[in-house]
């Protein structure tokens, strides 16, 4: 008779399920959309920082957000140019 003294509750099971399911679902969603999960985390981090600034009463500059997005787009364009160049070299 190996009955456990402690039982896990339904809520605890739900929380354990969510602990594993949410990160996997988040990564799968970003991969399905064609984005890197790292970019999504970077955007999430920026959003949280802006939210913290709003809570503290500091001015959140939209310019910083736009500058970050522009930098990310520039990096993506550069990667695509390099990939296109490699494809063109392969055809020759």
User: What sort of overall outline do the alpha carbons produce when their principal axes are compared?
Assistant: flat
Alpha carbon gap, first and last residue: 74 Å
Q: What is the average of the pLDDT values?
A: 83
> How many beta-strand elements?
0
Low-confidence stretches: none
What count of helical segments does DSSP give? 3
The fraction of residues assigned to DSSP E strands is under 5%
Find the structural class using helix and strand composition: mainly alpha
Largest beta-sheet characterization: none
Radius of gyration of CA atoms, rounded to a whole number: 22 Å
* Element pattern in H and E: HHH
Helicity range: over 70%
Provide a brief overview of the structure.
The protein has about 90 residues and is mainly α. It contains 3 helices and no strands. The protein starts with 9 loop residues before the first helix and ends with a helix.
Structure, described:
By secondary structure, the protein is mainly alpha-helical. It contains three helices and no strands. The chain has helices spanning 10-33, 37-56, 62-91.
Outline the secondary-structure elements.
Elements: H1 10-33, H2 37-56, H3 62-91
